[in-house]
Specification:
Strand order of the largest sheet: 2-1-3-4-5
Oligomer: single chain
Helix content: 25-40%
Order of helices and strands: EEHEEEH
Amino acid sequence: MKPSPHGPNGVHFIQFLFPHGTKSDQWIERPPEIALKARALWAAGFRLEIENKSGMIWMSCVHHSQELAVDKTCWDGPEVPVKVDEMIRDAHAKFIRVPPL
C-alpha cells in the first residue's frame, strides 16, 4: 500500500475509471479509528475499491482471493464518507480478529 498524502488518517482506495477500467489510487481522510481499521484490512490481504458509475458510488472490500467481502452503494455526495466508514467497520468486524485484552 502506498503512503497516504493525507498522513495517518488517509484511507487508500483503488478507483476504477471508465470506460476502460484504468486503475487510480485515491485517498479519503477519515477519523483515526476508521483509518486504523482500513490499514488492518489492507494488511490482512483485503483491498478497498471504488467506482463512480453515472453518479452512483460503488464501494467494495475485496480479499486478494477475489472474494467480495463487503460492499456499499450510495449517490455521490455527502453520504459517501458515511458509507466508507460503514463498509470499513463492517469488514473489520467480520474479518479481522482482535485478541482480547
